[in-house]
Amino acid sequence: AQTVTQSQPEMSVQEAETVTLSCTYDTSENNYYLFWYKQPPSRQMILVIRQEAYKQQNATENRFSVNFQKAAKSFSLKISDSQLGDTAMYFCAFMIIQGAQKLVFGQGTRLTINP
Amino acid sequence: DAGITQSPRHKVTETGTPVTLRCHQTENHRYMYWYRQDPGHGLRLIHYSYGVKDTDKGEVSDGYSVSRSKTEDFLLTLESATSSQTSVYFCAISPGQGIGGNTEAFFGQGTRLTVV
Which one of A65, A78, A95, B115 is most buried, by most CB atoms within 10 A? Predict the structure, then answer.
């Protein structure tokens, strides 16, 4: 079974600081994607960044970057120069890309950016 | 925005009554998912579908059934609603791994279900 664990239920930082959200996963599969989704108070789910397991280079999207450690099954999200609009729930997710393409999420981390 | 619609958006129902939630997509995506979101538990997978009439159970499938008779619709049914099924339900769709290798899931706006 595939599981995703986010060990930080809540985090809080000051605006402009850098923050790192942790995620670990468990799988015996080799071909998969990892995602970070953001859920603001509007409840909308927004893709922040994705990483293909076979790519060793860490994905980056503007102020967002990941540290993907495949052997350790770790996938952390770093937010640089944090902004008030980054305040949201953040979910780590894992998708097998063969067969039925199961998509599993972690418990979420509530991130608050303080002015 | 991906064409995905959940209905109803809000529902209050009584314990023991059947309830069906609908997820409708206009993207012709192969994969569809139902999740429930509860505080402290994140998004938990209920059922998912990898094609018409092809479905499988997720981690919290007890008390729920699904059907997918056509590509665009994925129905979630609570046969006899209980208070523990009070939650926010999300539907998601995904095209699968496309040209260039990228894929992602697109989400509906959610359905808030209250069982009293």
Answer: A95
A107 to chain B: closest CA residue? B42
Two tokens at A40? 């603001």
Residue A90 CA to residue A40 CA, distance in Å, equals 9
Q: For residues A46 and A40, is the Cβ–Cβ distance under 8 A?
A: yes
* B residues 27..86 contacting A (CB < 8 A): 30-31, 33, 35, 40-45, 48, 50, 54, 56, 58-59
Three-state secondary structure string covering B66-89: EEEEECCEEEEEECCCCHHHCEEE
pLDDT in tens, B13-72: 999 999 999 999 999 999 999 999 998 889 999 999 999 999 999 999 999 999 999 999
**DSSP-based helix, strand, coil % in chain B, nearest 5:** 5, 55, 40
- Cα gap B43→B80, rounded to integer Å: 22
CA A67 to chain centre: 10
DSSP conformation class of B101: S
Enumerate residue ranges in chain A where pLDDT < 50.
none
